[in-house]
Amino acid sequence: MNNFKTESQAHQLIGIFTLLVDSIYRSTPQQITDKYQKGEIKTITNLIRTKEFRDLIKSENDIESPDFKRALAIHLSDCPPLAFIEDGSTNTLDRLQHWLVIKFKYELLYYSLENPLSGVENPYKDLNLHIKKLIDLIRDDYITLYWVLHDGWDFISERIEKSNVPILKVLKTPGKMFLEIISQEMYYEFLIAFPEDILNRGNNFESFSPRQSVKRTIEYEKLKSKEKIEDLSKCEIAKLERLKKEAKDIYKKTWGTFLRDFCINACKNASKEFTVNRKLSEHKKVSDELWTTVKALSRDINGSAWHNGIRLSGKKKGGTYSR
Q1: 281-303 per-position pLDDT tens digit
Q2: Counts for the chain of helices (H) and strands (E), in that order
């Protein structure tokens, strides 16, 4: 996967779901927010411990399922874990709201996977058509990825045995690999609000522009394709090298992308089996459509930045950011 596409898609998905939460969902209750801002609740940690907040995030997932299906249900209902905001680092309302946005995304994903066979009415049936399509594509992206892992596991496990990455040895089944990919992709979305942790450089400011990100993604893919068939100019070589360095920096913080690439490439490089190739083709088709949909829905999203736990708004093309 193109690393710029990974970064862009993660940020833009959060932006889309933030707009959705603001318009129809249960954002932090006003009474809790007021108590915090008036100083009646002293810290975000204390806010998280209130009954109102615990009721807000209470999970109703109580579906009996076979082992892996149940594991997946529990996994999604715990995304992101409450522990992420209980350790004291989630010290602003903006970071707490960011956690809630991600919680909402994975609740939608949970219901999209579980609800058709649950016999229960879909609680999010009134979502607009664009968001329904987006959720369906996120679900189908994960489902088709799972079938790549499942049908291509012989090739993936063989590559794991040859790998010098110790943690891969723990992921001994397609199910464990699948849950780890979901966890890591969710974790990266959460860390968007913590730029000092994402980049591990002590910098408390990080900005994101949807327009510039998409432009950079397209530039990178165009130069990489051109590099294969003809010589690049000095200017193009310099630009490609800069983009490669930026892509490498992104890759360091997206373990989920590494795992996806590792498994997909193992199947691509080793498989001549019709079944595995068909699963790869189905997954690529869905992933490409998801990316196209994210780009289209992101036209309404402005640039944003995080500074010391505060989310700042900007313009679509980036630039000046303000509260």
Answers
A1: 999 999 999 988 888 887 777 78
A2: 15, 4
Q: Which amino acid is at 313?
A: S
Which amino acid, residue 24?
I
Q: Where are the alpha helices (DSSP H) in 115-209?
A: 129-151, 153-162, 174-191, 195-198
List for the chain the helix, strand, coil content (%; round to 5): 70, 5, 25
Report DSSP state, residue 293.
H
Largest Cα–Cα separation, the chain: 66
Residue 40 contacts by C-beta under 8 Å, 6 or more apart in sequence? none
How many Å apart are CA 238 and CA 297, to the nearest integer?
32
Say how far apart CA 279 and CA 150 lie, in whole Å.
Answer: 10
CA distance 269 to 283: 16
**What's the order of all strands across the beta sheet hosting 205-208?**
205-208, 304-307, 310-315, 318-322
301: tokens are: 């999203």
SS3 43: coil
Tokens of 87: 């350790």
Half-sphere exposure of 264 (CA within 13 A, CB side): 20
Closest CA to 48 of 90, 109, 111, 105: 90
Cα dist from 13 to 46, 156, 175, whole Å = 29, 29, 25
Amino acid, res. 228? K
Decide which of 148 and 86 is more confident. Answer: 148
| pLDDT tens digits for range 208-226 | 777 777 778 788 888 878 7
If one counts every other C-beta atom within 10 angstroms of the C-beta of residue 155, the result is 19
State the Cα–Cα distance between residues 107 and 119, nearest whole angstrom. Answer: 17
Q: What gap in Å lies between CA 16 and CA 14, rounded to an integer?
A: 5
